[in-house]
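Troubleshooting: if your tokenizer reports a length mismatch, compare your output against this known-good record of 66 residues.
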Amino acid sequence: MIPAIPRHDLDRTAGEALAQARVMCDAALHAAIDDLPKPLRHMAGYHFGWWDADGAPDRADAGKAL
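Known-good structure output:
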């Protein structure tokens, strides 16, 4: 049986749902990436849009984070 979707969830846009999911997952994702060896951590953080190619924090939109 598929559980019912709460009514308030049906009124959200896809963008709103993704933004909420990002808030819920972001801290755990950062913690997991922080545990990687430095070269992998740098590469992963770059691809998530957290910093630029030189490792400086990137203030640009991080994209979909999918």
